[in-house]
C-alpha cells in the first residue's frame, strides 16, 4: 500500500513538473515570436507542411464521418418521425463536437508527430546547437514558426472537416435516402446558430491547435538526441495530444453547451 501511494505521489510531482516546464516553454515561444514574425516565409512554409498536407486526410475522414452520421441519425429520427431535421442534427453534431475533435486527432497523428520528429532530428544532427553557436535562437528560428503554423492550421482544418461531413450527410440523406434537398438545407440554416454552434466550434479548434502544436514542439525540442529518443518523443506527442484533446473537449463543452 505504501508503494502505491508513493507511485501516485511520484506521478503527481512529475506531472506538475512537466506541466510547469511546458508553460515556461510556451512563454519562451511567445517571447521569441516577434523574431519569427520578421521572417514570415518560415511560418508560411510550415503552414504548407502542417496544414495543406493534412487537408486530404481530414477532408476524406470528415466525408465518411458525415455519411456514417447521416445513416445513424436518420435511423434514430425515423423512429420519432422527424427525418426532416436530419440536416440540422448532423450539422450540429459536427460543429459542436465531432468535427473539431476528429480534425484535431488526425492533425496530432500526422502533422504533430511530423513536427516532433523533424525537430528531434535537427537536435540529433546538432543543427540546433549550430544555431546557438551562430547566435541564432533555435526557438525563434525553428520552434515558433511551427507552433504558429499549427495554431493557424487547426481551425481551418476543422472547418474543412465540418464542410466535408455535412456534404457526406447530404449525399446520404438526399441522394441515397431520398429526402428533399430544400428541406435538408433550410432546416440546417434555421437550426444552426452562429454563436452557439459555429463560433464555439472555432474556439474549440483554436484551443486544440494550441495544445497540439505546443506538445509537438516541446517533445521534439526536449527529445533525447538518439533514434530511440525521437521515436519515443513522437509516440508521446500522439498519446499526450490525444488525451489533451479529449480532456479539453470535455472542459470546453461543459462551459459552452451546458448551463
Describe the structure.
- The chain is mainly α and 259 residues long.
- The chain has one domain (2-256).
- Helix content is 87%, strand content 0%.
- The protein has 9 helices and no strands.
- The protein has helices spanning 2-37, 40-50, 55-79, 86-124, 127-133, 138-176, 181-191, 194-221, 227-256.
- The radius of gyration is 21 Å and the shape is elongated.
- The relative contact order is 0.16.
Summary, kept brief:
The protein has 9 helices and no strands. With 259 residues, the chain is mainly alpha-helical. The chain has one domain (2-256).
What profile does the largest beta sheet have? none
Shape: elongated
C-alpha Rg (nearest Å): 21 Å
By helix and strand content, what is the structural category?
mainly alpha
Q: Which regions contain 5 or more consecutive residues with pLDDT less than 50?
A: none
Order of helical and strand elements: HHHHHHHHH
Properties at a glance:
259 residues
